[in-house]
Structures are given as structure tokens and as C-alpha cells.
Amino acid sequence: MRARRLRARVTAALVLAALLVPALAGCLRVQASMGLSSNDRVSGRIVAAVIPENSADEGPQFTAPEALATQVRIEPYNQDGYVGSEIYFDDLNFGEVEQLSQLSEQAQGLFELKFQRNGDLVSLNGRVDLETLAPHGSDVQLSVAFPARVAKTNGTREGDAVVSWKLPAGEVSTVRAEVGYADPNTRSFAGWAGIVGGITLAVAAVVAALAYLYRNPPASGAPAGFSLRRWWDQVKNDA
């Protein structure tokens, strides 16, 4: 009986210790999701929160970089016992995505994410340093939706165009993905070139038609039938 009670106490102590480990380690929740459009623009949401130590603990707080003040919105986060911040960003170019690391001075150097374009190939490269984070009780995830099928990645495919990464605490992780789609600047130029080409062809057609109208005047005494030249002269006279 005494041995049974001792085993019960040991079991209860182990269960209690298991429940306390996340609190002692400092539970962290980071959930980042973003979408890349075919125009090379990035929008998304980041949640950064912890289980508070006391009622005054508001969790991680951030400040939008001045250059992104109109594109970044920060709101308080309080869900499932976690408190912190919820960050929304919209229509960022690749250079502006890198500036998200300036949301917190403490976070600089810990989280680096970079989109780069080389012709029709876009690559995502990142480095997340969580070495100082306790390995228990932390949930750090990143999910990215691309505008086309992902060719290469070291993440988990959630579909042809969506990749996720679960980033372990206590380690330095890398993020890699490659996707191919047309450069929006090239597409814009191609569209403009098409319009200009269409205008050029139209002008050439008009010039050719006018040249055709006046190529050979009708012979004297020829019967009066339909004449493109007379029709054009009539149009000019009526204008």
C-alpha cells in the first residue's frame, strides 16, 4: 500500500512537472502566413504571442517601420491563453518584405526573409535563429502561398503552390523555395509593345490603303463605278 501511494505521488509529481515545463520554458507562438501575387507583391499576417507571466504581461510588442506605416497594421492578440501582437501587411514589394525584420529591435538578426527575382525565377530564402528559445512549449510556423507551382523547396508542400515550415526551437533553420512565373515588368512591356505594335500596324494599314486609293487614277472616259479614291475624297470633304 505504501509503495502504491509512493508510486502515485511520483506519477502525480511527474505529471505536474510536465505541465509546468512549458510555463517555465516560456511558451511562444509565432504563426506567419503570407501570399505572393503574380505582380511580385506580398501580403500576409504574423502572430507573435506568449503565455503571460502575470496580468500585466502584454506579450511581444512591435512598431511598424516608418517607411511601411501605411502598409502595416498591428493589433493586440489575446487567444487561447496567449497574448501578444497580430501584424497585418499588404502589398509589399520584395525590398519592403525585408524591412519587416525592423518590427522589433530584439528580433533583428533572428528572422531574415528575402524574395529575389532572376528573370522568370523567384526564390525565397530565409534564416530563422531560435537557438536561444527553449525547445519545449514553442510553436513557430511559416506558410507561403505562391502564384504558381513550386519547383523546389525544403519545406512541406501543402499543395502545388503552398509550402509550410515548422521551425524547431533551439535550432537555426533555413527556408528555401523556388517558383517560376513571368516577370510582371516584362508582361507590362509586352502589353505596351503589343498596343504600340497594333497602332503601328493600323497606321501602316491606313497608309497602304491611301497608297492603294491613289495608285492609278481612272482612265479618261472610264465608266463611273465605285471608287475608293472618290469615297475617301468624299469623306475628307464631309469632315
From TrEMBL:
<protein>
    <submittedName>
        <fullName>DUF3153 domain-containing protein</fullName>
    </submittedName>
</protein>
<keyword id="KW-1133">Transmembrane helix</keyword>
<dbReference type="Pfam" id="PF21946">
    <property type="entry name" value="LppM"/>
</dbReference>
<keyword id="KW-0732">Signal</keyword>
<feature type="transmembrane region" description="Helical">
    <location>
        <begin position="189"/>
        <end position="214"/>
    </location>
</feature>
<feature type="signal peptide">
    <location>
        <begin position="1"/>
        <end position="25"/>
    </location>
</feature>
<feature type="domain" description="LppM">
    <location>
        <begin position="29"/>
        <end position="181"/>
    </location>
</feature>
<dbReference type="InterPro" id="IPR053807">
    <property type="entry name" value="LppM"/>
</dbReference>
<keyword id="KW-0472">Membrane</keyword>
<keyword id="KW-0812">Transmembrane</keyword>
